[in-house]
Request: fold
Amino acid sequence: MVQKLIELALRNRLIVLLIAGGLFAWGIYSVKENPIDAIPDLSENQVIVFTEWMGRSPQVIEDQVTYPLVSNLQGIPKIKNVRGSSMFGMSFVYVIFEDNTDIYWARTRVLERLNYAQRLLPQGVTPTLGPDGTGVGHIFWYHLDAPRMDLGEQRALQDWYIKFALQTVPGVAEVASFGGFEKQYQLVVDPVKLQFYNISLMDVMNKVKANNNDVGGRKFEMSEMSYIIRGLGYIKSKEDVENIALTNYNGIPVRVKDIGSVQMGGDLRLGIFDMDGKGEVVGGIVVMRYGENASKVIDAVKAKMKEVEKGLPAGVTFKTSYDRSTLIEAAIDNIKGKLLEEMLAVSLIVIVFLFHWRSALSIIIQIPITVAISFILLNAFGLSSNIMSLTGIALAIGVIVDNGIIMAENSYRNLADWQAKHEPGK
Reply:
């Protein structure tokens, strides 16, 4: 079989050269299309289910949220394991799928099962899926340099402008905000006044919630004109909250400002983000989507940040906290340099060892073709160019030329035997 393949290749040398050239061109194209990252993604194929129920103890979260979710998610096909974690006010369920399972198919099946499991959870508790990223998906961190804005204003700018803009970048799964204060209206109630007016705290909560709403009416026709009737009731300022009526006392309305005070404040925080010991900052974490090219996504995020920066208030700029592209470029450049050095060293050794330029050329030309074909296989198996994959290619360069040297030596030996047998006078 091998002999017939060799004979076929020798008789059709032009076709063999065209195939080799085509594979080399395909390999060069695959090099450009192959995702680039510094480290390989060895994380498990998982879907995260996050549920928040603030104010509850870990035991309550475990009994009423985590256990019902874990028990109902175990019947999904292609699952390897389901892990649950409960903490104060939060529940995390990690659904681990088999490695060859499509991540978006897995997310769809988990979401289908969550629709069924929703009825088993307490009222008002809604589980959500985590971003379609991986454990190495944190590719870019940034923070705002805004000396003339307080932390609450910076966080509002991040949550309602910057975050939405960066989430439109292709390949970005999520932009997670950190630092600062999430603004909220805080109602400080005087219990003595509540008792005097005979109002419960639940009545105050329900009245404030009911009054923060827009309602729609019907259409009103007059003079051949149609008018849409609406009731506008969304809260826009602290005074709107203070003027909400709760009840009446001897025919006089009792408003929120009569039983307490309203102030602007920040939501409860579990930590702070400090920059180099110089004070708190506000920023975001860009999470890359599963299977994307980290280098291209980072470049796209930086380009989008330049556009967003034009619309920021005066004096507000972006500062980079963590940029994986620096690590990617350094790692890839180092491996590329070593790869070229190995190719040159192996080529020189082959030339010195054989001491025949035609034989050496036929062996050396295998190195770039084989390296190019390896990138075709990397794309086929969904692997990225990283430290491990490129190091493996570099280590294999010495093995690539072994078969060529053996075949060249074998050819010379057979030619020498043939010449000895057919030499005149023998």
